[in-house]
Amino acid sequence: MRLAARILVVLMPVLLVVGRAPADIALSLVVLLFLVAMAIARDAAPFRTPWMKVALVFWVWLLASAPFALADIGSAFGVSASFIRFPLFAAALSYWLIDDVTWRQRLLLCLGVVLGASAVWAVIEWIDIALLINDGRPVIRLTGPFEDNKVGIFILKLMFPVLGFLAWRALLPADRLADGPARASTRGTGLVLGYAALLLVAILLSGERMALLMALAGMLIMGLLVRARLLRRLTLALLAAAVVLGGLTAVLAPRLYDRQIASTVETVSAIGDSIHGRYWQSGLDVGALAPWTGVGGKNFRLLCPEIKAAEIAAFEDPQEIQFCATHPHNIYIEAYTEHGIPGLILFCMMIIALILALRGAGRDDRVTGAAIGVLLTLWPLATHGSFYNNWNGAVFWLATGLMLALRNAAAIERKGRPA
């Protein structure tokens, strides 16, 4: 039972590329096996952690508020009932599946290979389509190995656990568990920087503006926090080179520059007037219909066109997509809109509990990298996919479970025991 679940988890990066249905089926099977194993062993320990307790309370609120949905109670209850599989998946990872160093490394290896292959695919796609077919005119968005345009955000959300692990492996063995200054091998440092450069180039070429912005921010944080001084300096140098490369696209690839650099600056400087700013405002307006219970899961998409009808009609480009989408594109506004003020408070408490769960790990590059990936996804001023979407949920909670498992391993190693 445990072996089958571990194999599914190691294959999860591949399944995320194959499609949302295979990944969600595998995740659900892992959760089912986990619950059966815990019931047989009569082990409730993974459900007693502070973050899991808050997640369970959040889930109870989702269920309790679902009957008050304003448009479609069935959809609201379906979203609410199925949400719990995601925190349970993270608990299964950290407590039962990758608590063993061999399986953690197998998951990280598979994840690293899939991310690298996706990046190479995106680069080749850009060269093939932009340079060969379009006579040197860059395409706006790339798909990579996916059916839709999400290769950049996929790489962003899962790259930092791998980079953190590689940074930790780059340290000399005697310095990995020691506090204070650390030394890194030349070969290991080169591997970290080369791999990071490949991923950054793929994100730049992908045409995904938020992914590029968050990737650069993550590299800056990582460059400041990794333990080896040489690796810190070279990581910051790589970040500077990436910024210079972004500037050079103004000459080498003007359309790419307009998409990734110029339009990003324009959007950030006037976020309220951007399409995502209008989505955020629409979320707040719809949420005002039922601020204490929320309008219900998956009900924003149903109510928004009616609430914003007058603004849509008066807009210079009177299309519904200018104000309404399937979700508000911000996970905090989504929590408020669909689950009310109590839902937003519990959602934030769950995030805080996850952050507090990192205590006791010490300064460990593996935990630092994994935490950067999770916290970038949770950054409140970013644009987000729906938090309750099966693909987004699988990606986020895979990263979260990996972060918690690495934290547990680091804490155990600090006590002088193998993990």
From TrEMBL:
Organism: Tistrella bauzanensis
Source organism, top-level taxon: Bacteria
Ranges for domain O-antigen ligase-related: 196-348
Subcellular location: Membrane
Keyword annotations of the record: Membrane, Transmembrane, Transmembrane helix
This protein's record includes keyword Transmembrane: yes
Membrane topology (UniProt): Multi-pass membrane protein
Pfam families for this protein: Wzy_C
Main localization (coarse): membrane
Identification of the protein by name: O-antigen ligase-related domain-containing protein
Keyword Cell division annotated: no
InterPro entries to which the protein is assigned, alphabetical: O-antigen_ligase-rel_domated (IPR007016), WaaL-like (IPR051533)
Regions that span the bilayer: 26-44, 51-70, 76-98, 107-133, 153-172, 184-204, 210-227, 234-253, 340-358, 370-388, 394-412
